[in-house]
Amino acid sequence: ETGKRDNSIYLSLSLPLGDNHSADSGYSRSGNDINQRLGVNGSFGERHQWSYGINASRNNQGYRSYDANLAHNNSIGSYRASYSRDSLKNRSTSLGASGAVVAHKHGITLSQPVGESFAIIHAKDAAGAKVESGANVSLDYFGNAVMPYTSPYEINCTSCKLMFSLKRQQGASFEHQARLFLESKGLTFIAANQNFKCGELDLIMNDKETIVFVEVRQRSHSAYGSAIESVDWRKQQKWLDAANLWNDLAGILIFALAGMGSYYFSDRTFDEKILWVAIYPTLFFIGTTLYVKSMMRERKNPRYFWASVIFHLLCVLIFVVSQ
Q1: Does the keyword Lyase apply (predicted)?
Q2: Separation of alpha carbons 24 and 190, rounded Å
Q3: DSSP-assigned states of every residue in 262-282
Q4: pLDDT (tens digit, 9 = 90+) per residue, 151-180?
Q5: What phi and psi values does residue 255 have, to the nearest 5 degrees?
Q6: Which member of 49, 58, 149, 198 lies 3.0 to 4.6 Å from 136 by CB, making a disulfide possible if both were Cys?
Q7: Global pTM?
Q8: Burial of residue 62, with CB atoms counted within 10 A of its CB: 0-12 exposed, 13-18 middle, 19 or more buried
């Protein structure tokens, strides 16, 4: 209507930072208004049960804003926390939780928010087993779980990973459940409980390349030799559990560092705020992911785990010294 040309420019960039982590930035200009944005977001944990986001933005008129959020999902609910502030000294903090309580013939079970159609899972003596088709769902102490979303009027298939203690599952009961689980994974039984002339071959399973578990017993039921593969597997699992725990703690520490940076560095320049609120936690998390992921893939060398611990302590030391 005025006869003047209105030029607008929009640019955006997204950079992957490894598995399930990314950094994104944006630039826009419309007339005399310029806006810039920088953010980091992603998820972590064994089943990606943690998710986070850190964002900062500014314009050419001096307005600045920062926000951070953290969310966690597990078998008994979903939890959220967020914090934001801007250059006008507006602040906002929010906490949220959601879930459901389901009563059934096996008892009462806490769960994530459920839809119109959901499933109740019960497996006796299988506390801790993880439901494969359910997002971050595992069986509670009583062997119960709720799969929050299913397809109505259809057959919904689900299975549980045998991640619970082997000590609770002895004899035929454990072997039966282990067999069902391994067969669902495409493993083939070469022989099971077959009697031989000089002893009993208790259980052999093969996935075409790796023998998963082998144990030879005498007729007196005493073990002949030792199940080396089983022992090594248990040691590996301990290190993997420790690495997963450390990875979760690192994510929480990132969230804390971002919040501290936003508060303590509020009187610094925008570039310094970006350095401490976004870039520093990002580098911190990249180091964690590299070390922990490397350790998970090796599954035999704990040096990666201790290197991860040392790396985090150095980052904290740098943060303290820079004050």
Answers
A1: no
A2: 51
A3: HHHTTTS-HHHHHIIIIIHHH
A4: 665 555 554 544 333 333 344 455 555 566
A5: -60, -40
A6: 49
A7: 0.47
A8: exposed
- Tokens in use for 246? 């450390």
d(CA 87, CA 101): 42
CA 132 to chain centre: 14
Structure-token pair, residue 310: 């040392």
Question: What gap in Å lies between CA 128 and CA 169, rounded to an integer?
Answer: 12
CA angle 197, 198, 204 (to 5 degrees): 90
293, amino acid identity: K
Q: Which residues pair with 11 in a beta bridge?
A: 27
Helical residues (DSSP H) of 88-227, grouped into ranges: 171-184
Higher confidence at residue 306 or residue 79? 79
**Cβ atoms of residues 61 and 260 within 8 Å:** no
CA angle 237, 239, 243 (to 5 degrees): 115
The CA–CA distances, whole Å, from 195 to 191, 224, 225, 239 equal 10, 14, 17, 36
Q: Of 230, 196, 226, 239, give the one whose Cα is nearest residue 210.
A: 230
Mean pLDDT across the stretch 48-67? Answer: 89
**pLDDT, tens digit, for every residue of 225-273?**
444 444 445 555 666 666 666 666 666 666 566 666 655 555 666 666 6
